[in-house]
Design a protein that fits this description.
heterodimer, A: alpha/beta, Rossmann fold, five-stranded parallel sheet, 12 helices, B: alpha+beta, 2 domains, eight-stranded mixed sheet, four-stranded antiparallel sheet, 31% helix, 25% strand
């Protein structure tokens, strides 16, 4: 007798849909995914929705409205295992820049009818609202890491997801260090591995899409980037992108730009 | 007895001469003998170790400056072919690969079958190994081949490798091989040792010393002329000049006592303020040998693989045991690394784990300098 397939649901909160699209981007593996797990609720892929509860939920996006703060509790209640995917869900995303600004003023300046807009003053990660079983980093997530998390979940093992620096995979890949060899500022030393060191492989500095690594020393790196010519506003800006709300990047951003 | 054993009797005392114009004959011979010939190449504004089809692929006309946290390629038009000491990549990347699949297993009707990957198809020939890196290979030989447990991956890649060294004429700003007794002239373990002479002139040539029977055979087959005593005097002067221009120095003997006496020094916290724990020093170190293994399975659960990767003692995972990570502070991790290099390897393998190549200084994004950190610790006065 074969065990029935586990069910999968994919949820969207405040986000750009890029991480969900990473699932559909698994073109070669898509049939294998569909064969290994029952895609029960994934409206980006199909309007056919099967009611919960679900064995595994993938949650994209951050919490920016009171309605979403309520909805994530409902999602948690019907999910046996909940994995957040991407920088929005794990750190608040680019929209966490609002955490450093006056949202009421934004609302007044941007919208013709500010009274139509119902929003919270902050963008916060899912883990700040409900229990999260595993967080997958990235803006967007890496498709190989997603497949690894799904495989690990299906076969009851711990996913092999490194929390060390981008430098470790950059060096293993044989890239020359862009910071040392070219003087290009790079967030690789303080950023979690997982992307495969894509940007340095193309001679660009790391943008920090995967958020802070396990033991980030952002202050020391920022001091070095200042020596390489970065101004205070530039230093603030490099730490205030997709993971602006992650503790280590937030603290370093606050240290600069004045 | 293998072909890499030392020669039974010394060859011509002063060595032989390989004219630069005939350098390709050496490379052709090695290619024809079935070697995978690798050497330094400029790629993307940095120095890598790549396939070496001919001498024209060498970094001719280039040099590089090295200082803490900075490596810069210079198109100086120097006539030397081996004007760049080294880049961040060492021969370790070929002998002890950064990522290697140890085995894969596949589910079968009555269980599972295991497949091991074969080693490289061809033996390596390395051209332009620096003296420090030759010592580093010897350190890894000791660790990975000479103990009770021989590392199969390393063994398959190291055995039969043909090593051609080039003595350094111009050390970099972070070099300290003289302090570590590893250079700038190649010690033992090479097949051929070259010294580049009179680059830029019509008599641009290499003094060739042989270090093995395999090396002797190559010299004979190339039909090289014997060198004069003046050639060897020139080579000696080049090496002496390089020795006098070391970018850095360290008292390696005192360092052992200093590190022993400063396990609890507040200086480790000072290093921790700067250290990124990024692991770059361990990745570029030509003697660092630590690895981790990762097991994966595919979605169907029918295929499993075990991969081996370079690990770093700067990660939490390195000392993760039940209950957590043993070395939680960056200071503790740096202390462990520097102690392992300069002190602990002596106790385990009777030699230093540091060869003075200076890569950890140059390729540290924030320029932490192993020689300066040793010097900053209070000297052992006992």
């Amino acid at each position: 007798m074969t065990e029935p397939l586990k069910t999968l649901a994919v949820w969207k909160f405040a986000s750009c849909d890029g991480c969900q699209l990473s699932i559909l981007d698994c073109e070669d593996e898509l049939l294998a995914i569909a064969g290994a797990i029952r895609i029960a609720n994934f409206t980006e892929a199909s309007s056919h929705v099967i009611d919960g509860p679900y064995d595994l939920s993938l949650v994209e996006g951050s919490i920016t409205t009171a309605h979403d703060a309520e909805r994530i509790r409902e999602v948690r209640a019907q999910s046996r295992f909940l994995v957040t995917i991407g920088a929005c869900a794990t750190a608040g995303g680019i929209q966490a820049l609002r955490n450093f600004a006056d949202v009421a003023e934004y609302r007044r300046v941007v919208y013709a009818r500010p009274d139509y807009i119902e929003t919270l003053a902050t963008s916060t990660p899912i883990a700040q609202h409900v229990k999260v079983d595993f967080e997958l980093r990235g803006c967007p997530i890496d498709k190989r890491q997603l497949l690894e998390v799904l495989s690990a979940y299906l076969h009851h093992r711990k996913p092999v997801i490194s929390t060390e620096s981008v430098c470790t995979e950059c060096k293993r890949r044989g890239n020359p260090c862009v910071m040392v060899a070219h003087g290009t500022p790079c967030l690789g030393p303080v950023t979690q591995a997982g992307c495969g060191a894509i940007c340095p492989a193309f001679n660009r500095g790391c943008y920090g899409c995967f958020g802070p690594m396990e033991s980030p020393n952002a202050a020391s790196l920022a001091d070095r980037m200042a020596q390489l010519g970065m101004t205070e506003p530039e230093l603030q800006r490099v730490f205030r992108t997709f993971n602006a709300g992650a503790a280590a990047f937030r603290a370093e951003g606050e240290r600069h730009g004045r | 007895m293998t072909s890499n054993d030392p020669p039974a009797s010394p060859t011509a005392e002063a060595g032989h001469i390989l004219p630069a114009a005939h350098f390709d004959a050496l490379l052709t011979l090695l290619h024809e003998d079935g070697f995978d010939v690798r050497g330094p190449r400029v790629q993307g504004g940095a120095l890598e170790i790549g396939k070496l089809p001919n001498a024209a692929a060498l970094p001719q006309g280039c040099s590089a400056t090295q200082e803490p946290g900075a490596w810069r390629l210079q198109h100086t038009g120097t006539p030397a072919w081996f004007g760049i000491t080294h880049g961040g990549m060492s021969w370790k990347a070929l002998l002890h690969p950064a990522r290697t699949r140890l085995w894969s297993a596949e589910r079968t009707a009555d269980g599972f079958s295991v497949h091991e990957d074969a080693g490289p198809a061809k033996p390596f020939a390395f051209i332009g190994v620096r003296a420090c890196d030759l010592r580093a290979i010897a350190v890894q030989d000791n660790v990975l081949q000479r103990g009770p447990y021989v590392d199969a991956v390393y063994n398959a890649r190291r055995n039969g490798a043909f090593l051609v060294t080039v003595d350094c004429a111009e050390p970099s700003g972070t070099c300290f091989c003289v302090s570590m007794g590893s250079g700038p002239a190649a010690g033992s373990g090479y097949d051929l040792a070259l010294t580049e002479l009179d680059a830029g002139s019509a008599s641009h040539r290499f003094l060739v010393r042989t270090g093995s029977r395999a090396g002797e055979a190559v010299v004979q087959r190339l039909g090289l002329c014997e060198a004069t005593h003046q050639d060897s005097a020139s080579a000696k002067a080049i090496v002496e000049g390089a020795s006098a221009r070391m970018g850095r120095s360290m008292d390696a003997t005192a360092a052992r006592a200093t590190l022993s006496a400063n396990r609890e020094s507040p200086h480790w916290q000072d290093v921790a303020q700067r250290c990124l724990s990024c692991g770059n020093c361990t990745m570029v170190c030509p003697t660092c040998f630590c690895t981790t293994v990762e097991d994966t399975s595919d979605l169907s659960g029918d295929i499993a693989e075990r991969w081996r990767l370079w690990d770093s003692c700067f990660t939490f995972g390195f000392t993760h045991v039940a209950g957590g990570t043993v070395r939680e502070s960056a200071g503790a991790r740096y202390r462990h690394w520097i102690s392992h290099k300069l002190l602990n390897l002596h106790e385990q393998f009777d030699e230093s784990g540091c060869v003075g190549c200076g890569r950890c200084i140059t390729w540290c994004p924030v320029g932490i300098d192993i020689t300066a950190e040793v010097a900053a610790l209070p000297q052992d006065v006992s």
